[in-house]
Amino acid sequence: MHCLTQNKMKNLLKIIFAFLLVTQVHSTLAWGLTGHRVIAEIAEQHLNKKAKRNIQKIIGHQKLAYWSNWADFIKSDPDPALNTTGSWHFVNAPANLTYDEFVGAMHGSPENNLYKAYLRIREEARRNEGTLTEKQQQLYYILHLVADAHQPMHLGRQEDLGGNTIEVTFFGRKTNLHRIWDSDLIDNEQYSFTEYAAVLNINKDDYRRYALHSTWDEWLYDSHQTANQIYDDITINNVLSYKYIYDFKYVWEACLLKAGLRLAKELNEIYG
Known about the structure:
The chain has a single domain, classed as P1 Nuclease (Orthogonal Bundle), CATH 1.10.575. Helix content is 65%, strand content 4%. The protein has 14 helices and 3 strands.
């Protein structure tokens, strides 16, 4: 009996460990460092005066890009309130949903995912209550999670951990589909984050076109549709190089630009 109990306990611990490992793998990756900084830089260029003043009261004169990756870094913090937030960075959805199906799936999804965590943090920030540290952390999460919502593989599928288990090669180097969209494609362009923001953020009408008259639900559905396109393509070819860049360059750059402009909208509404 004692041996049987020990075996059951060992099996249970293995299951728990596997679950934690899967959760961590799925959630540790987001837009890479450069992608998040590009998005924050674009957003900062579209802040209204009141939002700038109120944000300066929270973080001083530091650039938004400096704090744009904080929500990834703190997953290594010893504080459980910070290191258990990995699931906030993504939300899974089945393939090829209609808009109404997608919104229904989001409303019925667990509380601690990207969709619901962001809405909760946004509301907390709008109330403008709490300590300075709490206000800072709310801002840092907003910077990061709006960006994550525009990385299509953060709206990926549960069975492959948002593309993390889909192996591909990129110019002969082994990687996976999630990492391709996190950082490989962006880093291959060899821009600094300020350079990339500058070359993307060139049309003054884009803010109105992509940000002003759209909603959180629509932004995530946009990423869901792009994820479907990425999944369909990778079933045809997983050896990626120049042709993949040719096919998707304007797609990932549109994701970055929209994320920056929509982040600006959120910051202007919350702090302006």
